[in-house]
Amino acid sequence: MSKPQTPPTIATLNEWLGRQESHNDQLTLFPANALAAALDHDQRFAEGDALPALWHWLYFLSYAKQSELGSDGHAHRGGFLPPVSLPRRMWAGGDLRWHRPLQLGTKVRRLSSIQSIEQKQGKSGELVFVKVLHEISDAAGVAMQEVHDIVYRGHSLPGSLGKSSSNSQPVEPPEFSRSLVPDSVLLFRYSALTFNGHRIHYDRRYTMEDEGYAGLIVHGPLVATLLAELLREHRPDATWLSFRFKALLPMIEGEPLKLCGKATGKGHYELWAENAHGAMTMTASASIEHT
């Protein structure tokens, strides 16, 4: 009988620090136009148009074979990302900086590197935080940089996650907002466009029984994209300089989602998403140049 494998220690995981990988891609039209349709936009893109903020997540996709997927629909641990043994992996937030807009039709390269790995003890148990730096370049050099925050954690009791918190209420009313109800079709289309096999976005039984959520989970990157779109609708001709976001609570499919924003200074905006109970599920800040 083989001995059970020992979970990697933080010292072992630190062997991944500084690890790099590179991907080449082309900012083709179909993903952008397909996302525009999924978000119910009338806009259709042509080559040379600026790619909207956060829509680069439609590119540089990982093509793990079916046999290389774990029970959660993610690729098996290890490879580029460290082999953290905790079962649940989430996109916790990010920090993005633009030097100039990415243009549709161009060839681009993304260089990714592991910046940090940190182990903490939270209220729900052990947590591991991983930061990944992505630098996206075109023919003129680095066009944007992104720090991607990933958190790993243990399992939770069925239905215990995705509930509102009275401690995360917005302190001021928004200056501009809009509401929508993310349904399972939107979640499916976004998963398909990003080749995301994570079962929490489409397999309700698995999501509730195995991962402990109250229902299907709206993708964190999708909520962040919707917040960026709210500001793009408010300031359609602006040039984006930075965007930072943090996920606070899971957003459940089929529940009303309110997207909110307000100016905090010239070119600076605070954005947030509220669930049906008025609790903030995500916060963000953005800097833009008005044209």
Describe what you observe in this structure.
β4 and β5 form a beta hairpin. By secondary structure, the protein is an alpha+beta fold. The N terminus is likely disordered. 16% of the residues lie in helices and 35% in strands. The termini are far apart. A ten-stranded antiparallel beta sheet has the order 1-3-4-5-2-7-10-9-8-6, with helices on one face.
Which terms would index this structure?
291 residues, 5 helices, 10 strands, 16% helix, globular, disordered N terminus
Mean pLDDT: 89
Strand content: 25-35%
Query: Major β-sheet, in short?
Result: 10 strands, antiparallel
| Helix proportion | 10-25%
Question: Low-confidence stretches at least 5 residues in length (pLDDT < 50)?
Answer: 1-5
Name the helix and strand elements from N-terminus to C-terminus, one letter apiece. Answer: HEHEEEEEHHHEEEE
By secondary-structure content and strand pairing, the structural class works out as alpha+beta
Q: In a few lines, what is going on in this structure?
A:
The chain is of the alpha+beta class and about 290 residues long.
Compile the SSE list and pairings.
Blueprint: H1 10-13, E1 20-26, H2 29-38, E2 88-98, E3 107-122, E4 125-138, E5 141-153, E6 176-180, H3 184-193, H4 204-210, H5 220-234, E7 239-247, E8 257-265, E9 268-274, E10 280-289
Antiparallel strand pairs: 1-3, 2-5, 2-7, 3-4, 4-5, 6-8, 7-10, 8-9, 9-10
